[in-house]
Design a protein that fits this description.
By secondary structure, the chain is an all-alpha fold. It has one domain. It has 15 helices and two strands. Strands 1-2 form a two-stranded antiparallel sheet. Strand 1 and strand 2 form a beta hairpin. The longest helix has 26 residues.
Length: about 300
Amino acid sequence: MKQPFHKALISFIFFGNYFYGLCAVALSIEASLQQRYPLNSLLYYTIVFCATVLYYTRAYITDVNVTTNNKRILWYVQFRRWVFFSQILFTIIVILCAGIFLYKNWQHLKWLSWWHWALIFIFPVTAALYYGINSKKFGRFNLRNSGWLKPFVIGFAWAGLVTVYPVLFYSLDYGLIFEPTLVGLFLFIKNFMFITILCIMFDIKDYAVDYNRQLKTFVVEVGLRNTIFYIIIPLCIIGLVSFISYAILRHFHVLKIGLNIIPFAALIAVAWSMHRRKSILYYLIIIDGLMLVKALCGTVAMLYF
């Protein structure tokens, strides 16, 4: 039976990981504005979007350990030719855009210090180690197999991509000296914890699979209710109190504070609702959608207040 167009479009956007690419761009824009930097070039955002889609799609075209009744896997089976060619296309786009960026800024690269290079490489290396290595010489190793560590690895890689990279690569693009700031550090920690919480929530979807694989995620180790009420919600409250304290110290406009509170409130509301079983699209649309809500609220707050 043919799927209605709107449902097919939703599956295409979310199962195809294009929504992740959109969230990465939106969060990058938010972080630039919050750190008082101009926006990056279209070239930069193209690389961020395509690289994000490529990264997340890789997991679903190489992972053979997922049961065949998984709707997302079935979507990849149905559209395997499109996924294959889109991966090639996005890879070519990333290589071309990165080549143009490097060609334009070759002279600026000479002035980077060792810790600039460390910042450039630490996040993609961490993301690569999440998938890990599988060779006869080095054996098998990946950070996904450490259930409790997995959300923090993803949160760290995302925080670097959407908080550090926008200002670092803007500085590189315009020949400026990038210097870390306390504001940047606070925003990095904020994004790190926000996305880590989303990852812990997302692990609830995979509870049965992780339990059978003996993967010690938070929900497997402490149970669903304890994960929600003793880990997720307290972390949300800590983040909310930290932000409000920071906002008061910096004399934020009350509407600016209110807009930035919305993602935390939504996070708590969604966490509260998760004691009931949800569909895969609920997790992709609602939970991952909180990244876009955060980006939009933060962007509007910076532009108008």
